[in-house]
Backbone:
DNA sequence: AAAAAAATGGGGATTAAGCCTCAGTTAAAT
DNA sequence: ATTTAACTGAGGCTTAATCCCCATTTTTTT
């Protein structure tokens, strides 16, 4: 057990990042806290030798999102414990987070004490039993039940491409695109691409 | 000029709200800082007598959004200076913010010093020349050029209602809905409701 | 009072979306 | 080796969306 804990905060919103940094520094056991505005920047810091005990990573970021960032950290710096932070506390985000190898998940609706609790747990025991972890991660949900091709079609549908354009992009026939769309609609229980876009954007899917 | 400044922070994300609160309290001239998670709660606090010098209000909140909240504050507690905070620093949000009667606009991409600067300006001089204010607020942009009826149609289009449903909702004919839509498309330069939804959601219009 | 902007809605046309069934092929899993 | 899941695509259909044109009435502005 280490008494002083070093932290890295990674979030694209400066106001949040800097505030959280100050807030965390007010806890006695946290001795210092670096910050960066995206995943790439964070990894660069680590390469330069500024390696913390724990990294707090926002999921929605430009350049390199939180999932990718956590994956990279886990492969290059396995000693660093990672905590994902997200505004979207739905099953999809949480599941994807743990699949990326994160050690904990914190919602932006949680309290500072929750995040500090996770930090302490990870620093002292290397593990944190997440309050979000039991949100039935067992049964497949929503986008997770989509096949690779269906996900690709979904992504293009949400970029407002027509069937024709999607067919061109994927080198398949319009009819196949239509079949994929049909499956997506049934699996996600929607009847229009508008619903799909609303779903994807409000849940932070892409 | 008052030496001690009291603040209220209103934001639905607990983690951000509490962090900002701690961060602001670290500035010597800020003596205390209350917080609430939505506009209604904030106004209730004010009614109860907890009236601060300055209110920091997030624009995107449940129950009552930032624009409405600022309007209410300005009508019921005109002495309180308001600063809007937003993740969306586009012309639309900024313009709408000042129309609501806000005294300043702060992007969540700004630094803590920016927000502290705005607070000091407002507390000492009652005015803050915003770095965002000169972002050509003069020429009409995007959604702002829509008529009231067009905005209503836009809102319903983004809720994935069909023309038929919109017509029913607004007590007008489908043909009129179609004409409104036509105008919206031309004004916002889009060709599909999907683009419209993407535009609205990624810019925090609704 | 005159002009401009907003709201209304009809006619009509093309295109895209959505929905269903069926069926062959390929790849993965048991 | 056989079942299962994924990918592929055809035919055909219905409805909704998109995009023109036009005209009238109401409201607002000048």
Residues:
């Amino acid at each position: 057990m280490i008494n002083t804990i070093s932290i890295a905060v990674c979030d694209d919103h400066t106001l949040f990042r800097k505030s959280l940094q100050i807030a965390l520094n007010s806890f006695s056991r946290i001795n210092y806290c670096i910050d960066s505005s995206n995943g790439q920047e964070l990894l660069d810091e680590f390469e330069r030798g500024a390696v913390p005990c724990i990294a707090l990573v926002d999921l929605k970021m430009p350049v390199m999102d939180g999932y990718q960032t956590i994956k990279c950290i886990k492969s290059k710096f396995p000693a660093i414990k990672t905590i994902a932070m997200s505004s979207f506390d739905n099953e999809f985000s949480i599941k994807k987070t743990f699949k990326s190898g994160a050690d904990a998940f914190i919602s932006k609706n949680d309290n500072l004490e929750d995040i500090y609790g996770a930090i302490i747990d990870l620093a002292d025991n290397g593990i944190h039993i997440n309050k979000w972890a039991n949100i039935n991660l067992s049964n497949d949900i929503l986008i997770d039940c989509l096949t690779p091709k269906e996900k690709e079609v979904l992504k293009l549908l949400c970029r407002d491409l027509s069937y024709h354009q999607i067919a061109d992009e994927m080198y398949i026939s319009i009819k196949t695109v239509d079949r994929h769309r049909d499956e997506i609609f049934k699996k996600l229980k929607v009847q229009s691409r508008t619903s799909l876009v609303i779903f994807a954007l409000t849940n932070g899917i892409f």
Q: What stands out?
A: DSSP finds nine helices and five strands in chain B. The two ends of chain B are 38 Å apart (CA to CA).
